[in-house]
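thought: fold this chain, then report.
action: predict
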Amino acid sequence: MRIFISGGCKNGKSCYAQRLAKAQQTGLLFYVATMKPADPEDDGRIARHMRDREGLGFITVEQYADIENVLVRSGPDGSYLLDSLTALLANEMFPSGGPVNECAADKIIYGLKQILSNINNIVVVSDFIYGDSMIYDRYTELYRESLAKIDRAAAGQCDVVLEAAYANVMVHKGGEAFHASFGAMR
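observation:
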């Protein structure tokens, strides 16, 4: 099953996504890590995620950009957790030492289509950061709009769409299939 999960930052989405990926595991279990650490806070967050995955059997594949290449590195068989589209967009849109890539969303959407059409069991995580009414600078607005565009594309290609909010998980698409496969898993 292809599952898309979004919600606010730091609200337990990653832990829940790990449980979903593990529950639908067939063959090898891959964790596609997209966060390229830039500072000690990132290092700490990555270390926490690694501790959370300890003992679950995930094989970590670091893929900071060019997401379609994850298939070359690990193959289409098995089960996947891609965490997260938010970090992937940051890496693609703001490459280290390079100009802003204003077409990053289209590149990621293309890569996601390649992945989602070739992998049967995957959980894709993103952050819901585009819902407030603040006015931001040009590049922040472009980032927010790009993430929304990517999330819509991912949700459209996934069988199930979930939203995590304050430890509650709401099903927005594919409720019957989700409940049949995962029951009351919260």
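thought: worth noting. The chain has seven helices and seven strands.
final: tokens above.
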